[in-house]
Structures
1.
Amino acid sequence: MSKSIASKPMPRRFHQARWDEPLIFELSQPGQRGVLPPAVDPGILAEVGNPAAALPDGLRRDQPPALPELSQVHVVRHYARLAQENLGADLNIDIGQGTCTMKHNPKVNDQLANSPKAVDVHPLQDDATMQGILEIHYRLQEILKEISGLDAVSLHPGAGSMAIYANVAMIRAYHEARGEGEQRDEVITTIFSHPSNGAAARTAGYKIITLYPDEDGYPDLDALKAAVSERTAALMITNPEDTGIFNPRIAEFVRVVHEAGGLCAYDQANANGILGITRAREAGFDLCHFNLHKTFGAPHGSGGPGAGASCVTAALEPFLPAPTVAYDGKRYFLDHDRPQSIGKVHPFFGVTPAILRSYAWIMNLGAAGLREVSEIAVLNNNYLLQKVLDIPGVSAPYARGKRRIEQVRYSWEELTRETGVHTEEIGYRMADFGAHYWTSHHPFVVPEPMTLEPTESYSRADLDEYVAMLRQIAEEAYADPEIIKTAPHNSTIHRVDPDWFDDPEQWAITWRAYRRKHLGNGE
Amino acid sequence: MTNKPFIHPLIPNSVPEVKAAMLREVGAESVEDLYAAIPADLRLQDPLNLPPPQRSEYELVRHVEAILNKNVTARERLSFLGAGCYQHHVPAVCDEINSRSEFLTAYAGEPYEDHGRFQALWEYTAMMGELLNMDVVNVPTYDGFQAAATSLRMACRITGRDKVLISAAIGCDKLSRIQDYLKPNIAIELIPSDPESGQMNLEALAKALSADIAAVYFENPAYLGFLELQGQTIADMAHEAGAIAVTAVDPISLGVLAPPADYGADIVCGDIQPLGMHLHAGGGMGGFIATHDDETFVMEYPSRLFGVAPTSVPGEYGFGDVAYDRTSFAHREQGKEWVGTAAALWGITAGVYLALMGPQGMVEMGEGIMARTAYAMDRIGAMPGVKLPFVDAPHFQEFVVDFSASGKRVDEINRHLSDRGIFGGKDLSTEFPHLGQSMLLCITEVHSQADIDFLADALQEVLK
């Protein structure tokens, strides 16, 4: 009898693709072509010649741009190699990017979004010729009205932070319309709300007041009461916060701000655990926003395109970005007659490929499915919490003994103290196991943070595998921290020397800059 | 048919036995226990009232396709719509690469496990740098509107001034976006352009320029298709007054048009949709902002900027964030504006596009578009009842046709064109009332002589 094949070790023995791929400029071979533009018809040439040659000096380009010259196969091979040197959510148990709701993006939705009937529609076509696109937008608006409980929805925003900005712009317009625009110049947020709440509000001209948590990790109600005044324009707050803690006094927060005459905007970037469970409406909010590429299954595209949805009550509806997508019972149309609108936040009316995928994702699940998504996301998270807390050196600050919603912000403070290994370095080592790991947004209020969000897409075995990776790294930290200090070992590249990035003499944001600064052969 | 529990393909742990075992492990009786933190009065009592689901993949496809089939696309018809979203041929390789799941499904990965996206995005900015003759280009922001609005705010921060001058030839939607974005503390004055040539009125510019002007903004090609010939003069005048020249450009034109940096622009911005993105009903936009490698400018970008760097192994390229401390990721509201998910995949795609086209492809693309546009202007401009308002200026890709003298309205003309299978140009009659019954026609490399002749013949019939 032959021996069986030994069972797999846990964590797995991973090695990422390492093509040692040059920069595309280094692959250039003079004269090679990747694709040919259509030739100009002889009849046109006969009539007009080459008008580009007749451009006046100063407006005519004298040298062709110094782009690389590659045959098609070499372009494909280069980018295929770079793709292999990128994990993406399909390849890894992508729970290490908390707050970002990494979930499976169904392939069928990609097919639908890429169908010629979707990609070849021009946004300025007559409404009659894009009834399908408008219907998808309208239907998704109706669905998000129900999911948020609010009265009107705009799908214009290019992603979540732009939706936050659109909400701030509407808040500003609302107060201005009531003659309180100048007086109300403060926006209140919390430190565990996404940084864009403060940043977008500041961009829109507001002073920012940031509330820190009380000792249990909850947004501090007394601090809120002290902060509100006749100058309060709005509270912009994420709930559950990036700690995964649901603020049980959220309705009280809203009441306090409303009594001061301010509006309340609910950042629903972390809505994946509360779909069909609790809504902006019940908590009294005036606005909220969703990230379609997070909660509703559209892919993240290496950092966009995503899509944001701004949802508002009837009182704020007049201020929505224009045009709105409307339906008169017979036909869908773009309503440009919006005199109080904040105007445009995006060139046309939304990121249709993401909107289409999210519509399909929701339609595949339905109300019961969405609730199951949330329940399993929360179950996964609490299961993971229990397993992670068994790992030496890690803790989950705040709300001790309480359940979390869809994610947890952990702390490696103890491990760092005992081993000198920092959370960033744990991330570098995680790459050796084929996993993505992120720390948290700055500032690190939770010391040595790690934010894990195990959405509904992951099985128990996936969670156990991720925990096994973290455990091994923690054990290495205590036994032989050098392994981590020199990681990654099995990744595409080795540890990057960061010195150039903050040095104006050395940073090289383009090939031109690199040539000039480091090869000494620029202009 | 038995009444089995529903196990969803998207939710592995919806298998009841697994769910029960996991609940046991966490010491919960039911999922309800896990929601104990949410007060009862905030709990939704009834299920969400949503349309019935299309649970099988087949039903879902059928449902969505039935809706999408109500569209008539710009490729099923002959389309001359542009105005910020352009119908170009998208090379198959662009779709192939941006459909690769390693890129499509990734997010904000780190420079190690997601090295590929860092290199691809750095190469995108590097190729844009060659196209623009500038050393610094951002990881894409949302779109060209945002890029313009941010460029102007950057100019204000750099100069410490709070007023900008914008060419009145800008499109209304973009101006609306800029106005909203600059509203808190920046004033805008529009500089008129010559009604015959479209060129910026330099006397008005000279009058408006003062010590409180942060930037002068114009577009080349202009929104209405003509080229601004006075770029160098405008930039010189701006610089003379201590202001920054901000120029928006269509990157597809830069095989033949001089990059704005060559005539003095300090900040150059625009949209990358033309570089390999489909129309997507306007959902394929991505913004770029470019500057010279001047620390004062670099430190005012809100966007991520990727840099190349050595690693611990000789011959390896590493990548990372340049001057990360500028961003709202690092310092929340103390950062520059804000940064978030925007349009990275379109940036990767635009890089693929530029690599495929190469220098020669971009030259041929520009020449081909200009030739086709000139031909269309000749044919249409020769018709009675038609006037081309800016005909004396060179044009790139788009031009205005004024039908006022024909006595016909643009919407009426477009209806007739539609009957003949043509999507006519954008109706400008409300956006630019002083241009009368005008439309903005867009000609790209996708239009053959026969296509342009078909449009011209149809217009001739409609105008009879």
Note: Chain B has three domains: 12-57, 78-87+360-463, 92-353.
2.
Amino acid sequence: MRDSKISTKFNAKVVQFAILLTVFFALYFFVEPSENNLLWRLPPLIAGLPFLINDFVSYLMYDFMPVEIYDADIDDYEKSPLIKEITRSISSAVLFCIQFVREILVGGVKTIVSFTSWDFVSENKWAYWPGLPWTFVCSATMLLGYSLQGVRLACLSGLATLYIAIFGQWEPAMQTVSLVLIAAPVSFLIGLSFGVLAYKSSTAEGVLAPLLNVAQTMPQFSYLVPAMVFFGVGDHAGAIATIIFATPPMIRLTLLGLKKVPPEVIESGLMSGCSDLQLMFRVLIPTARRDILIGVNQVIMQCLAMAVIASFIGAKGLGFNLLLALNSLKVGKALELGICIVLIAVVLDKLSLAWANKQVDYFSKMDFVSRHSYKLILIGLLLIWSIIAYLGSFFAQDGFNYLYMIPHNKGITTEHFWQAGVDWILDTFFFGLKAFSDFLIINVLVPMKTAYLGMPVVATFVLVMGVGYLIGGFKSAIIVGGFLAFIALTEWWDRALITAYMTTFGVMISAIIGITVGSLCAQSQFASKSILLVCDTFQTFPSFIYLIPVIMLFGVTDTSVLTAVIVYATIPATRYTVEGLRSVPESLHDAASMSGVTKLQRWMKIELPLAFPHIMLGVNQTIVFALFMVIIGALIGTDDLGQYILKALSDKNGIGNGLSLGLCVAFIGLAADHLIRTWAEKKKRELRL
Amino acid sequence: MGWGKVVSDWAEILIMEDKMKIGILRRCVILLAVFFVSLTSLVNVAKADSSEPIVIPTHNWSSQVVMAYVIGGIFESMGNNVEYVPADTQAVYEAIRNGDVTISHEVWQSTFGKSFYTAMAKGGIIDAGTHEAMTLEEVGVPQWVIDQDLCPGLPNWEALKNCKDVFATADSGGKGRILEGPQSWHGQEYPDRVEALLGDDWVVKFAGSADALWAELASAKKEGRGTITFNWTPNFTDADGFAFIEWPPYYPGCRKQDGGDSKCGSPKGWLKKAANYKFPKTHPAAYTAFSQMSFNAGQIGSMAKLVDIEGLSHQDAAKKWLADNEAVWKPFTKAGM
């Protein structure tokens, strides 16, 4: 009885979809493509939005509330707007912090300058802060790893720092580390406080939710122009852009973790007489620790993912060198730098996790030496390595003291090995790849692009809103329609269609590959673990790395961009499939085997449906990843929204364009996100999960 | 400056509160302003002297980065402090105007001239003289396309009318393709020109970055296929030979955005130097030397070669160049004395 009900419902859905498609194609073929036809393209009614934003920002930054500032450089008073003075003060405070950490690591004079003056430093050559010897930093990280977790973490951190040092990337790596060491804790604190705020007040949650949605789907490039206009060019601007980008996941995960805290725990806290603050810091946050720690992991990953992008607005370090290497097509060098970034991410992540998980031992009674043993060893190490570094300076050749600091690009390099590998692949497969690319472009990509561009605006609306209605009812139709309307009323609708075409293609292929590979790997414990590790590694690589090999293989074509998109966007599809399938209870497997199903049947009828909601979340992530990569693909050469966002970086009024274009991209992502999430929720309810 | 100033600022505000009956909102705003301004003066306690570092921008091509270190080295030899900051090529003019960056030593006429003059019109940036090197930014073909005579009559532009097939690619729909730099470099200039002169048989595709151009040159060479890409001189590609298309000559006003018909090529351009307007006041000696600095195409090429061909790091290349060419740069430093 129930079965037949479900199947009639199912049939009804199929019929509805068929009707929707018929209407869509009817509109597609019968709407006349002309500029004046409202059904073909909407007029750009909000094309003025970027100018409004520009005017507002330039008023704020250049005219609002001028204050008199004494400028010692030219010995005169200057009028300077209040907001500019405020943002510049924030900038110099952030810059001071970054430089302070940086100079502890690699030495310098700027911290001393902040308390004295450049004159003082120029006249007194002794006023120079010597950086720590790399040997010390290396062994200190090892010691830290050991004290927090044990031998394994010690080995990992030791090897990673050693790698960075002997490959001659010490200085840029420490520049990046100093930026991350400031940006990550700030993101963490802001994220935690906003998360707590959203937990405490539902108004705050209501305000934050849409902001977070948009912030997480805006391409990273869109943050650069505002950061530059408000905070100037330099490490501070890079750090601030990084903080803006890395905070949203932290807020979200904090809120998620706090909400999951069972009421019993809160009540027991209240019964023990906790004050509000005590309840938060002694009960709620420790209980929500798992999700908050995932947040910390996300913050660190995002910070390093921004390392390259932040170098567009003046952040020094590995990211800038990577960009330079890519610009001169030195793939080997770029790969080496990319590995350094991954290593820093992994070490910081593991160390912070171990630190957060460490239990304080309140009960053991220890004497002074054993309580402070690590600190004592640390001081000992510092002394020993400093003396060695000092002795080394007597043997230094050409002023390079390798025991103190391995100078940039003077280490060993495996560049030639990687380069040779890339060259070999190019020489061997070049013509095959070329033929493949030409075939793909002529037979698939160009027709698909033309088809997307030939879509009348009314047909797009009917299709997307119709799907919304069928999945989530009237409300969903209105929501996705709203997102679409914003894009359709800007002057970038055609660009958005091209972005949509590339994203659709990328997502389809990625999802197929990801779900297939994920399903195969989920069959065994070992394969699952290995593939998850591969996913982790690929996800930490800065997305730029993927661009260069594909340009070399396929040239400046859409094939290049799409290959990079597919490689990058397959990661979440694979990961979520593996996780989803592995979480299907073992007892169900046994039950299925006893009913005599084959492996394929079990996969089709039991595992896949049960894991379906989780897999759909993976597809959701795939869409976001694909969108980001399509936008970054602008660096290869595309004609979609990304190219315009890139252009906004150098426009004199780029802030309005950059933000509006970013919103367009975000809304494409959010519309897809809404549809998939609603569908997955519905499935979940049907499965009673 | 320092704590004393901050304390007196706060005292002033408190006294003012007593004397005047100003609105609470306004008072808050003023307090906030003073707080942040004091913060600034605390963080930048040191100012007012020429030992402040000169901030030199580095962009994403080799000769520019090496020259940044070369100029930095010259400043350092004069006893100045120098700092390098990575910056976007177009955004840098706004940064110089605001004082975040002190100088720019490679302002290319046709690519950056507009941004430079826009910033100049807003105030805050000054012209610090011109390099000896002339620049040309134009589309062209690698020398071997001419040598193998793939399209007879090149580099004259009229030859292109008859060989669109040589330059067609998979995604160009049978038309000849010209690969331009990113759209942010010249906007609609090339599409306008191509439409005006060559008509419908040609398309312009925008590459996303300089590396995309070099990759295209490398792969075209491998395939032995003809390609037209945007390029410039002085550049490292000069070593292998590169022939720029000879379009009808440029005259002022010929471009569409200036009211013309776009039937003209790019002008031979200048390579200028720019500086923040405070630079002559804060670093008089360094400014004089900077305004005297002039490199020619050969010198710029030799800087790029040390990195692109000989594989030195940018800093090392600059050091080597400075050591080998003392005769060239020493006179700049003596100009003001």
Note: The first strand of chain A starts at residue 66 and ends at 71.
3.
Amino acid sequence: MKAYENNLDVFESIFKRSVKHQYVHEPFEPNKALVIGDVDNLAKLNAFIGEYSADCQSFQYNDSFSWDELKSKIDEWQPDLILIQRQLGIPNKDLIFSVGPILETITQVCKMPVLVLPDELDNFVIDSVGIGFDHQIDNSLLINKALLLKNKLKHITLIHVEDESIFKYYMGAIEKIPGINTEFAETNIKETILELSADFFNGVADKLNNDKLKTTIHCEFGEIVSCYEKLIKEHNIDLLVFEAEDDSKMAMHSLGHSLTIQFPNVATLLV
Amino acid sequence: MILLNSIHTDVSMGVTFLFLGLLVLMVLALALEEKIHAHKSVITGVAAVFALILGQATGIFSSIDSHGSHMPFFVKFIDWGVIAIILGSSIFIDITSKSGIFSWLAIKLTKMTKGDPFKLLIYYSIMTVVFSALLNNVTAMLIIGSLTVVSLSNLKKLSLLLGFLICEGLLTNIGGLLTLISSVPNIIVGNTAGISFASFFVISAPYVLVATTGTIFLAGKLFKISPLKTDQEKADAALLITNFDENAGVESKSFFKLGWFVFISFILVLAMTDLIPYIQDLGIGFVAMAFGILMMIKIKNKTETTYKAIDWDLLFFFAFLFVVIGVMEYAQVLHLIGGGVVQLIDLGDTAGPIALLWASSIASSVTDNIPLAAMLAKTMGNLPEFAQNFWWAVIYGANLGGNITPIGSASTVVAVTIIAKNNLKLSFVGFIVKAVPFAFFQLVLASGYVYLIGLLN
């Protein structure tokens, strides 16, 4: 490598570091909501969403369910929010590692946010929301959509948990490269990754605190499920908000899908 | 008819042509540097080794008296003044850039454009010229080129990147004409011609101003870089450009302030070198080294990073090149080349400088302009009195020739590297097709300007 190529890299790093993505606030309202559930749950789901949306329609699931029929309804009515019962379409509710084929298909096919509520809805109120970010840190849309259910909202936790095991795997490769100082790489990569989310989150917090919403920032390396578990308890999180699709658009591989399965007692909004 | 003065040795024409062959091989190897995968210093180093052995074998050094000197005679061929300027400036610029002043200024100006592509073109072009003039062409291209990639990417205007980078690459060679230390050919030719830092600036500034303005407008037209039209476009761009934080590259406020203070002092001292007692006798090389060493106090226990950043390839390239040129002088090769230069000088004070300017620009477009400048400076230094604008013809030709091909100057090589790094397709011929209108405009303008310098003198 020539001296100038090394310097080019130095300057590119400085300028890339100087770009701090800012939160762009754009309000969304759940004016129209579509509720999908079976005969046992439809009424309580409707009752819940009635508090947030003025115009609700229902789609009742039964044995003669037709996906085409549901898809046509969604396409024609274009709801701002879809509320769907967890594990809808699964005959055996013991199959706990599936959120249900209808929910899985809707999140891949439809562009509108999909809300999944816990089974127990008595006295359920959304006043603490956790927004989980994957690798697209500067995701203003995720925050704006999370604010769809802001009626009784008091507290927002912005969460970025970077998978420590994947990081260790990459560090294992770095350790074997003589030209890279392992300790320097480990410290700097960790710091830079966390700084990226912290910078964006601080901007979001400034805006949301002005709107009287208490905002907490949480950026760390760790084991994803246990970190979220700890945060749910710590901040009494009622609703987790995630991207519905992962970075590479692989079906059902997003952070949101895994954690929707993992935490059945917490509501999830998949955007 | 001008008669040549040079070192007089009894060298046969055959020996002179043998050394000329070696020189041509070296120049060809330098032109094909990328193809043969050899760094410049290796090419000139090998040429120096062979030239010295061949010189001893043919007896061309017989007139050199080395008695009483511990220093090998060929070490004296090296122009240590030039080496001191380049080494001192490299150290100084490397440490000063760590203070964040250049990135701070570049980002501050980027934000002032509010994301308008045409304003960005104007601001980046001016910055390229100023940075090339005050730092060096390569550093200027590195700073502005990398900023352009990041800002156009942030503004989602990467389709304009190629035009920006070509324009900036070409402007580094215009900015390289502004001061005596802006480019290596200036340093070499200016030192030989005895042009001071201040008078170099006064003579060259008007040309740089007109050439820069013309180049910007030509780039806007040819690369279709135009101002934003609708209010929505302007609002979106203004929002995206606020993402930049000029303080991101500033790690210490005290170092940042020191960086500004020392950098401005450096420029002022350089400009007034001829007026400051003691300093005037020590020269620009001393000023560059002194400021470089003083800045090292700031990193006194971390000097290894700066030593690592120094372009040792460039410094060894110079040292070996000077040895080769020294040998060529004894082999009467410079006398031979001088004959060609004399023919150009004999064309008169009007046609002569213009012919020399175009000849040097064409020569420097296909090979490194540094050996060309060094060779011509040494050759012309041996000639008797001639009009001052011949020196300027070499300076303008050697610098502007770099704008004709992608290998014509170190900064255009950097521009092409950035272009390739961003997966933009640009062949050797493709670069020439895009660059020739600019080079032609700049050379025609320079021809008129060199003629004007002749008239005013």
Note: Chain A has a mean pLDDT of 89.
